[in-house]
Amino acid sequence: MINKEIEQKLYNGEIVAGSLLIPESREIATLLLQGASEEEWHQAIIIHNILQKRSPASAKRQAMLIRKRLGLMTPEHWALVKDGNAEVTTQALLAAAVKHSRLLGDFMSNVCRQHWLTFNRTLLDKDWREFLETCSQVDPAVGEWTATTTAKLKQVVYRILAEAGYVDSTRKLNLQPVSIVPEVRDYLTNHSEGYILQCLECTK
Question: CB-based contacts of 155: which residues, under 8 Å, 6+ apart?
């Protein structure tokens, strides 16, 4: 269960439940495209454990996170997640994660982009601290997050950046250029998702 302290209006902290979760998201996209009933969701997630989690609670938590992310998109997007190659699926999931988490999106759009434009290609711990300080000026509740929460959020955000190729690893955190694949670019353009596209192009 997500801690109440990170349920915010602008910067929700639900992202702590998982990074891009690529194999799991393909399974959830399949259920969405099939129009599965709530009983079929229960059978798939809890009984058959299609996400291959160690406990029903973990499976339910991650299924809920993925469903919330993908639920913000359309069946066309779900098909990209389900049937796309590794790069297409990864970028499609990143787009959904950005739409679901303004925290992730703003970090990419503001911090990563500024680093890239100034040829400062390595993220530092202070970048995350300064970013959260800026966020707290917009959403004061961010300043009430505990050190444990902010550390977990940083861990997940950096893992997402690594999974999507924006940094070389979660240890070195060296920024890398990423080209948006045509399928994802077209989807975001056709659905007027300019903010998301801007975030994904942070190392352009």
Answer: 170
User: CATH number of the domain that 179 lies in?
Assistant: 1.10.3540.10
Q: Work out the mean pLDDT of the chain and round it to a whole number.
A: 94
Which domain covers residue 68, as residue numbers?
19-200
Q: Is residue 8 part of a domain?
A: no
Global pTM reads: 0.94
What digits encode the pLDDT tens for the residues 97-155? 999 999 999 999 999 999 999 999 999 999 999 999 999 999 999 999 999 999 999 99
**Is 49 inside any structural domain?**
yes
Instruction: Answer whether residue 154 is part of any domain.
Output: yes
